[in-house]
Amino acid sequence: MKKSFWKKKYLIEHPHEVLGYLQSTSTPYKKNIDQFYCDTYATFGVLGVRYDDEATLAVLNEDAALHILRDVTNDRRYKNRFVKLFGFPEEYDFDEQTVFAKCDRLADVSMDFTFMGGMSAQKVFKVLLYHETLRLKNAVQALLDDEGDALKKTYRQLKRIAMLLKISRFLFDTAMIDRLQNVLGVLTCKERTALLDRMQSSAYQAFLWDIQTLLTEKSDFFLQKKGNQPLLFFIKKMVKKEPNALVKRLKKAIR
Predict the structure, then answer these.
(1) How distant is the alpha carbon of residue 74 from its chain centre?
(2) What is the 3-class SS of the chain, one letter each residue?
(3) Highest taxon of the source (predicted)?
(4) What are phi and psi of 152, to 5 degrees?
(5) What confidence tier does 107 reach under pLDDT thresholds 50, 70, 90?
(6) Residue 26 confidence (pLDDT)
(7) Nearest alpha-carbon partner for 135 in 148, 154, 114, 149
(8) CB within 8 Å of 15: residues ≥ 6 apart
(9) Average pLDDT over all residues of the chain
(10) Which of 91, 133, 153, 225 could tie 87 with a disulfide, CB 3.0–4.6 Å?
(11) Cβ atoms of 13 and 44 closer than 8 Å
(12) Could you read off the pLDDT of 137-187 as tens digits, one per residue?
């Protein structure tokens, strides 16, 4: 009867040190190491093991416990192909809430974002939508205060958000995006008096509420199946589907 094997992958730090130690020991799990790769500076590495019993795995886990950061068996970002393309997620992944807080401090600034190709596409678009919505709120306040260029700024922000939503429908729940697009269509107007009325309406408040709900939802409830795909892959597909100025700008922003 053929023996059954299982596989595990671990993210480790100081990978060469760990591998050297494990290979120099006389413990039986040495033969179970079947995969190893690390970043350029050998800060992080992935150790792949095959095992046929829990006892062997337990011994390995105990010996390497100080260097094992976590189990990444089911995280495709740690596959060799992805690591070669983008590096380890620790080098490019980010927390949306931290970036949102930075956007809050720079709400009036037109930020030139730089992105890494391995970043989650949905995270990047959440940040872009958050920043442009903040700028819309500021433009609307300026409109209410009767500032001279507020009409132009408000209209521009509405159009920018519309462009982001058009592409976001490939990442997020289409029903939510449809609702946001429909309300945005009602709100968008170039005539000052009409725009003032719309920016003080319940429709505008509902729009802000819905977009806030979308951006702050921590689960995958509003995500499409491929919402977490690497930004580079997503943009390459979008260049063919939506060859507009925003997509071209995002393509140039990827490092």
Answers:
(1) 18
(2) CCCCCEEEEEEEECHHHHHHHHHHCCCHHHHHEEEEEECCCCCEEEEEEEECCHHHHHHHHHHCCCCEEEECCCCHHHCHHHHHHHCCHHHCCCCHHHHHHHHHHCCCCCCCCCECCCCEHHHHHHHHHHHHHHHHHHHHHHHHCCCCCHHHHHHHHHHHHHHHHHHHCCCECHHHHHHHHHHHHHHCCCCHHHHHHHHCCHHHHHHHHHHHHHHHCCCCCCECCCCCCEHHHHHHHHHHHCCCHHHHHHHHHEC
(3) Bacteria
(4) -65, -45
(5) low
(6) 65
(7) 154
(8) 36, 38, 42, 44, 45, 46, 47, 67
(9) 89
(10) 91
(11) yes
(12) 999 999 999 998 999 999 999 999 999 999 999 999 999 999 999 999 999
Residue with tokens 């997020």: 172
| Identity at 82, one-letter amino acid code | F
Structure tokens at 252: 């140039």
Structure tokens at 111: 């930020």
pLDDT band at 27 (very low <50, low <70, confident <90, very high): low
Q: How confident is the model at residue 65 (pLDDT cuts 50, 70, 90)?
A: confident
Sorted by where each starts, the structural domains of the chain and their CATH numbers stand as 6-91 (3.30.70), 96-253 (no CATH)
Query: Are 67 and 14 a contacting pair, CB within 8 Å?
Result: yes
